[in-house]
């Protein structure tokens, strides 16, 4: 991978920098993604952020409000990075769709890669609780919109179906990389996408 590869959180800002709100979100993001949301108490978050517990409740109202803020910020940062990288891929729409898998490798190699925060969050809570699922679906919809546009530009007869197949490869690669620690699953997913798109290996 390129030496200066940029990922959703590089260059990382120090937890000590920024407003109390920014510090709390960054600290919670790090702890929630690494340790799990339920395993992380508000005391650990405020200690890492260097703020008072009262500040957390004043800004976010509750731990649940902080979780929502973290997911929104994680999603924004990831989309800014990922969609920007897709747009920067060389070639036409098919190459960009296939490249959407290879892009993931630079993220998978980062020390701060702990999988998808949305998959992790939804997995931790009651499956009948739609609170975090709705945030995850809103994030996914924005990514899928770009993939559908590319599939349409590629001349697909069913761009939504093609985009969802690419989306399944993306989600599968993220989960596999989190479990195995093998960043090269992105290359395997890229090969599958190229075959799906009738591109040369």
Task: Name the features.
mainly alpha; 69% helix; 10 helices; elongated; 0% strand; 201 residues
A few lines on this structure:
With 201 residues, this protein is an all-alpha fold. It is built from ten helices and no strands.
Secondary structure: elements and pairs:
Elements: H1 20-35, H2 42-49, H3 53-60, H4 63-88, H5 93-102, H6 104-108, H7 117-124, H8 131-153, H9 159-180, H10 185-196
Helix pairs in contact: 1-2, 1-4, 4-5, 4-8, 5-8, 5-9, 5-10, 7-8, 8-9, 9-10
How would you explain this protein's 3D organization?
This protein has 201 residues and is mostly helical. Helices cover 69% and strands 0% of the residues. The chain has 10 helices and no strands. The chain has helices at residues 20-35, 42-49, 53-60, 63-88, 93-102, 104-108, 117-124, 131-153, 159-180, 185-196. Helix 1 (20-35) packs across helix 2 (42-49), helix 5 (93-102) runs antiparallel to helix 10 (185-196) and helix 7 (117-124) runs antiparallel to helix 8. It is elongated. It starts with 19 loop residues before the first helix and ends in a 5-residue tail after the last helix. Mean pLDDT is 91; it is low at 11-15.
């Amino acid at each position: 991978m390129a030496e200066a590869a940029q990922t959703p959180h590089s260059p990382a800002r120090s937890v000590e920098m920024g407003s109390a709100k920014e510090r709390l979100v960054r600290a919670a993001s790090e702890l929630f993604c690494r340790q799990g949301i339920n395993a992380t108490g508000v005391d650990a978050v405020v200690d890492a952020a260097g703020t008072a517990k009262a500040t957390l409740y004043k800004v976010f109202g509750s731990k649940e409000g902080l979780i929502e803020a973290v997911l929104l910020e994680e999603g924004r940062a990831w989309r800014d990075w990922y969609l920007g990288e897709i747009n920067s891929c060389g070639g036409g729409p098919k190459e960009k769709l296939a490249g959407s898998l290879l892009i993931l490798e630079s993220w998978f190699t980062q020390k701060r890669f702990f999988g998808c925060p949305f998959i992790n969050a939804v997995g931790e809570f009651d499956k009948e609780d739609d609170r975090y699922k709705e945030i995850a679906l809103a994030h996914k919809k924005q990514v899928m919109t770009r993939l559908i546009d590319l599939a349409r530009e590629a001349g697909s007869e069913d761009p939504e179906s093609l985009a969802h197949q690419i989306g399944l490869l993306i989600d599968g690669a993220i989960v596999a990389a989190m479990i195995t620690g093998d960043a090269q699953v992105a290359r395997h997913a890229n090969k599958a996408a190229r075959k799906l798109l009738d591109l040369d290996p």
